[in-house]
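Consider the following assembly input.
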Amino acid sequence: DAGVIQSPRHEVTEMGQEVTLRCKPISGHDYLFWYRQTMMRGLELLIYFNNNVPIDDSGMPEDRFSAKMPNASFSTLKIQPSEPRDSAVYFCASSTSSYEQYFGPGTRLTVT
Amino acid sequence: AQSVSQHNHHVILSEAASLELGCNYSYGGTVNLFWYVQYPGQHLQLLLKYFSGDPLVKGIKGFEAEFIKSKFSFNLRKPSVQWSDTAEYFCAVLTGGFKTIFGAGTRLFVKA
């Protein structure tokens, strides 16, 4: 199994631009999570899905952030417009009902 | 609100020293507890977990953790650390549903 796949691994963009982060969960996992990691705030849960349906998006910072999961093998996290304070590492993780989460390698986002 | 507190942000040890990383959580219900590790440049991976039963759980690479319900604690221990244990360690608690709350992390540096 290839594990959780995220793309791109690094993204540098200018303030105001749209950013789309992608995630492919492990096949058969029915939960998908998006996290943001920063030095100041640590690891924060942004949103999670169960069977492609968003269950809890209370961690999404503001309306500039949106996440979708059109099918069981793909999810996106979009930031529009991006701001410098969005600079962070964004992790995607997937899980089954066993609760253990498998993390992807992360996307390091830099907004200048 | 649920929270996870890790007492030490940075720990520096020499090889062969014993390790104990503190973790306290605030959540009144049934908890499932985890320790994750993030090696430099890598993604988070599960070190060990507690769901029920024996409060002393053993994980990979010689790590163990003890769940003390009365103290709301789940401290991580290792009798003798190695240089390769240099990493960031995250305590996490799974609350109602599938929402996992992570601590701020403890960065461990082991001197060779």
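Chain B touches chain A at residues 32, 34, 36, 42-46, 49, 51, 90, 94, 97-105 (CB under 8 Å). Ask yourself how this observation constrains the way the partners meet.
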